[in-house]
Write a structure and sequence with these properties.
The chain has a two-stranded antiparallel sheet with strand order 1-2. By secondary structure, the protein is mainly alpha-helical. Strand 1 (9-14) and strand 2 form a beta hairpin. Helix 9 (179-187) runs antiparallel to helix 10 (194-209). It has helices spanning 2-8, 27-44, 55-68, 91-103, 108-130, 133-142, 146-153, 158-174, 179-187, 194-209, 215-238, 254-269, 278-287, 294-315, 322-327; strands at 9-14, 17-22.
């Protein structure tokens, strides 16, 4: 509900006066939302705890924390607490924890429907923004690819990362100096460490494509948005927590970086049907002068920086079978 309100009433500043700009959901957008909920909901409710990404992990962590009565001594360093993944952002587990607490631990089905509804809302928003039947159809196809269905129905934290980035970007694209927009993009880091990569790629892209806005002012607002999730991550690391399966930054492996970057680009363009051909489509639009606008170029630059960021993450992989780790990209 909070996300919908942020979309419906986006605060804009015009000539020093704050105004509320309403957002209207079109018929195509509403149809896409309803259709996706009808598709997602039965798939999500056809199972309960599913590891390693669903409620079986996130909900399990929440219940363990509840039974333990909070953070115990040795939480960050003792191998007994490895199952808690103390270096992992607490956003999704906290969401499940509070939903469980409010419902008396009787609301698992409702909790499972949260990402389904959020994915459908995002799709409806995008379809309404495009304002055409063809655009609505494209959004529907993108959100019914195997990857999108997996994210929506298996309780992946990526859904919360996506909605934070999307709402934040909607504000930042209108006003590069919007504090709330940067704060929302930074909030993606509360759900996945990769959210900080998205944040860095989006802020760097804005600085590259829109240097006239003012480097220092944009950088200050970006730093404000990333401060809390970054402080949490650094605090966990300083407390002794480590990301299981990864080496330190000083042990970056160049051949793994190259392999990861190549595999990511290969997925984006050579296996494009898995993503409804969205990456080749954006690339072609960026090449055409007719569609080459500031916002589109910001997205293209941001994606390129994000790919490099994920390649760096994979270059730090300590997996015994690195090929298996790369296969997880699929």
């Amino acid at each position: 509900l909070g996300c919908i309100l942020l979309w419906k009433y986006r605060v804009t500043c015009c000539h020093g006066h704050l105004s509320l700009r309403p957002f209207i959901v079109t018929g195509g957008g509403a149809l896409v939302m309803v259709a996706l909920i009808i598709i997602y909901a039965p798939l999500a409710l056809s199972h309960t705890f599913v590891a390693p990404n669903g409620l079986g992990t996130v909900g399990g962590r929440a219940k363990l924390m509840y039974m333990a009565g909070g953070i115990n001594e040795g939480f960050f360093t003792d191998s007994v607490f490895t199952l808690y993944q103390p270096a992992y952002p607490p956003g999704a587990a906290s969401l499940v924890f509070w939903c469980d607490a409010i419902s008396g631990a009787c609301g698992e089905w409702i909790i499972q429907l949260l990402p389904c509804v959020l994915m459908a809302v995002m799709a409806g928003f995008l379809a309404s923004r495009l304002r055409s039947a063809l655009g609505a159809l494209l959004v529907f196809v993108v959100f019914t690819t195997p990857v999108s269905i997996r994210l929506a129905t298996l309780f992946y934290p990526e859904v919360y990362v996506a909605i934070c980035c999307l709402i934040g970007w909607e504000r930042v694209r209108d006003n590069r100096l919007d504090y709330i927009g940067w704060l929302l993009i930074g909030a993606s880091g509360w759900f996945k460490n990769e959210g900080l990569i998205y944040f860095c790629s989006m802020s760097a892209a804005v600085l590259v494509v829109s240097p006239h806005v003012g480097f220092r002012r944009v950088a200050a607002r970006a730093a404000f948005g990333a401060a809390l999730p970054l402080a949490r991550h650094l605090g966990c690391r300083l407390a002794g927590a480590s990301l299981e399966g990864y080496v330190s930054l000083g042990e970056l492996r160049q051949h793994q970086f190259v392999a990861a970057a190549y595999r990511t680009v290969q997925h984006m363009f050579c296996s494009a049907w898995q993503y409804a051909f969205i990456f080749p489509l954006v690339f072609v639009m960026a090449l055409a002068p007719r569609w080459r606008k500031r916002d589109l170029m910001t997205v293209v630059v941001g994606v390129a920086i994000a790919v490099a960021g994920f390649a760096i993450i994979f270059s730090l992989s300590a997996a015994v079978d690195f090929k298996w780790h790369l296969d997880s990209l699929e």
